[in-house]
Amino acid sequence: MADETALVRFDDVGMRYDGGAEVLHGVSFSLAPGSYHFLTGPSGAGKSTLLRLLYLAQRPTAGQISLFGRDVRELGRADRARMRQRMGVVFQDFRLLPHLSVFDNVALPLRILKAPEAEIRRDVGELLAWVGLGEHEAASPATLSGGQQQRLAIARAVVVRPRLLLADEPTGNLDAEMGLKLMHLFEELNKLGTTIVIATHDTTLLARFRHPRLVLTEGRLKTMPPAPPPRGPVVQRTAPVAPRAEDTRGEGRS
Ligand SMILES: Nc1ncnc2c1ncn2[C@@H]1O[C@H](COP(=O)(O)OP(=O)(O)OP(=O)(O)O)[C@@H](O)[C@H]1O
């Protein structure tokens, strides 16, 4: 039965790339506001495809997707752009803007939302320092290492405290300590209300941050409970995520 309170709903969604085989088949699930799910499954199972559908970067070839209570088929170009402003996304290839500095890459989503420059200076500076890129504010993204680019992509995705955060293997290029630190940042965001979907193969993260799993196998999706807990003590850290009133930014709700 349709769940009208869901932030995201997929009903019998199928996806086939041009001329290819069907990559997703009959995928149905919903995400409650404030929920946190891991998206798992073997390489090629369709995880990135599902995230691209969620981000409205691709249209399904079958079924129906609702986002923020709207059927995405009814959305015009401007509506889609506005919806993307409520989402933070970390793609596997980062999609950084090469002509902008590190600082300006992170500042861009805030500038689109017309945040005051003083606030942008403060929030972007604080976040870049926290992810270890404080010394690189003026650099071009192309001069950064893979791990630094990943941290930059994450900073850009979280800086507006999005309603929905989508991340594809967000810790794949990071050392274990930085990976954990950023996972704690996602936990903090989630406590402040951000709905999260993280695609990962990392079984250590799955066991440590116990969230329900959306498991894709050959394009079919099953919802599973959290992975079993790890053995041994878990070290908790906190992350500097300031409460942010998204509605002060004038993006409007649908
Ligand atoms: N742009 C595209 N055009 C054609 N086929 C594609 C395209 N993108 C993905 N595919 C195919 O869709 C299937 C699912 O790919 P997808 O990248 O979604 O899987 P994945 O689970 O994210 O894999 P990985 O864990 O390796 O990133 C694969 O068979 C892939 O070859």
Automatic annotation (TrEMBL):
Location of the region described as Disordered in the Swiss-Prot/TrEMBL record: 220-254
Superkingdom, taxonomy of origin: Bacteria
GO biological process terms on file: cell division
Function summary: Part of the ABC transporter FtsEX involved in cellular division. Important for assembly or stability of the septal ring.
Annotated membrane topology: Peripheral membrane protein
Keywords: ATP-binding, Cell cycle, Cell division, Cell membrane, Membrane, Nucleotide-binding, Transport
The keyword Cell cycle is assigned to this record: yes
Gene3D superfamilies: P-loop containing nucleotide triphosphate hydrolases (3.40.50.300)
InterPro entries according to UniProt: AAA+_ATPase, ABC_transporter-like_ATP-bd, ABC_transporter-like_CS, ABC_transpr_LolD-like, Cell_div_FtsE, MacB-like_ATP-bd, P-loop_NTPase
Basic and acidic residues bias (residue ranges): 244-254
Chain coiled-coil ranges: none
Listed PANTHER family: CELL DIVISION ATP-BINDING PROTEIN FTSE (PTHR24220:SF470), IMPORT ATP-BINDING PROTEIN (PTHR24220)
Subunit structure: Homodimer. Forms a membrane-associated complex with FtsX.
Pfam families on file: ABC_tran
Protein name stated in the entry: Cell division ATP-binding protein FtsE
GO CC list: plasma membrane
